[in-house]
Amino acid sequence: MSSFHICPHGPTSKTLIFLLCLLLFAGQIALFSRVILVQASSAEPTYATPNAFADYQIEGGFVPFFDGVNATFDYNVTAVYGNGSMNVYLVENISQGTEVPTTGNVSVFLDSVVSPIIFPAVSASALGTNRLIFDNVSCTFVRNFNETVPAGTFNTEEYSGTDSNGTQLHFYIDRASGLAVEMDGGGALEQLTQSNIATPISVPSGTASSIPYVEVFAFGWVLAAIGFLTVRRHYNKKAARLGPVKNEKQNPEKAKSGNLRKS
């Protein structure tokens, strides 16, 4: 029958270093897990994930009462199904000038995962081609371009096409996720304000937005520092308590004479 023995002197310095390395390794795993998951799930587009969202601001369109049109469109994927479809929750708030009340609308759509019509994205496999269909418009590839919007600067592919009314439209689509970051044409401008789908290559200075994996990385280092300081403090206190006992063992005659004087 085996038994476990606990070392009274605590872990050695090598053990503490090993534990610290484990904490740092866990932080690194958390840092890169998002990127690894995105790369590994090539069968599904990045946006085809429950709770994936993209929020936009829209300006222009037409000018009633000498004020422009301002609106916000918030897209949220609430469910993804095995048959290649997904539920899209859309919240629209439209202001048509100070003399027109703001209107709001909430809708739920069943959209396609590979070729969405409602959700403003295209599958990554469709990018890099000379032609694609976006927003029911046949588009032609124009160029690769770093486009800056309120959500940040994105590495995009620009496509251009003409709608059924003859209006020239331009679409800037994030090359990594397939999410549209800007759509303009016909006097209207629609830009991405925030999303958990596309990651910008840079964010505007002074913005409160942050990249998730940077927060995870910093959190991992904080945990490692707290763990190291806690363990160090614990064994410093233990060493202080064991100090006199150790001295008595090293100088038994001195300890004995001291006890005689006390008596």
Describe, in plain words, how this protein is organized in 3D:
This protein is of the alpha+beta class and 263 residues long. Helix 1 (13-40) packs antiparallel against helix 2 and helix 2 (212-250) packs across helix 3. 18% of the residues are buried. Helix content is 30%, strand content 34%. The chain has a domain at 37-215: Beta Barrel (YmcC-like fold). The radius of gyration is 30 Å and the shape is elongated. It has a 10-stranded antiparallel β-sheet with strand order 4-3-2-1-10-9-8-7-6-5, with no helix packed on it. It has helices at residues 13-40, 212-250, 252-262, and strands at 53-60, 70-80, 85-95, 103-112, 131-134, 137-149, 152-162, 168-174, 180-185, 188-195.
Overall residue-averaged pLDDT value? 75
**Helical content (DSSP H or I, runs of 4+):** 25-40%
**CATH T-level fold name of the domain at 37-215:** YmcC-like fold
Give the topology string: H per helix, E per strand: HEEEEEEEEEEHH
Gyration radius over CA = 30 Å
SS-derived structural category: alpha+beta
Counting H and I runs of at least 4 residues, what is the number of helices? 3
The shape is elongated
Measured by DSSP, the beta-strand proportion falls in 25-35%
